[in-house]
Write a structure and sequence with these properties.
28% strand, 192 residues, Alpha-Beta Plaits, single chain, alpha+beta, 5-stranded antiparallel β-sheet, 3 domains
Length: 192
């Protein structure tokens, strides 16, 4: 399967014919290569190919053509897990050891900006079936650092207290409300 995001100037692939026209322009014989495609919201498209070699070839052609912002090939039992705000000194190999507690890591990479600088984002391709069984937490502890994880199908949780009962909202997070009450009581007891 190949996941594709078109550039902003295209906004979206208007219909399936527009997608097939793009493939024709890129000299891709989609009748022989593709098993199917699925249009997703925001102009995203999933292409299904007959084998891994065809998926990798299609991914390379789409990337090189500049007609898409992002193209990634992966098997059906693979899923991307993204980590954000990861400090530069933390190695992908060390993160991989932590993620392996939840799912087998197939490969990983660091996202870099146009100048080659680390953006603090890491991507790990893991076994989807294992991840569903073990439930990767929203926050991973990497030594003294806590980082957020993101993946398809993930349960949302509050970034303040990590509870799944509500999303982040400073006014309604029970832990935040309790901290504010304690702070008010401490201030009232010790006005200096």
């Amino acid at each position: 399967m190949i996941f594709v995001v078109p550039p902003a100037k295209f906004k979206t692939f208007k219909n399936r014919m527009a997608i097939y026209e793009l493939l024709n322009e890129l000299s891709i014989n989609y009748k022989r290569t593709m098993v199917g495609l699925l249009q997703l919201p925001a102009g995203k498209v999933k292409f299904y190919t007959q084998n891994k070699e065809q998926a990798l070839h299609l991914t390379r052609v789409l990337r090189e053509s500049g007609t898409v912002v992002y193209a990634s090939a992966h098997a059906e039992d693979e899923i991307q897990v993204a980590l954000s705000h990861v400090p530069h000194p933390i190695l992908n190999e060390d993160i991989s050891h932590v993620i392996k507690k939840y799912a087998s890591v197939i490969r990983f990479y660091t996202l870099k900006d146009s100048e080659g600088m680390d953006m603090g984002k890491r991507v790990f391709i893991v076994k989807k079936s294992q991840l569903r069984q073990t439930k990767l937490p929203k926050f991973l502890q990497l030594g003294k650092i806590e980082v957020m994880t993101f993946h398809e199908g993930q349960t949302q949780s509050c970034t303040l207290c990590h509870e799944e009962a509500h999303l982040i909202n400073i006014q309604t997070c029970p832990s935040q409300i309790e901290r504010e009450k304690q702070s008010i009581h401490q201030t009232a007891a010790n006005p200096n």
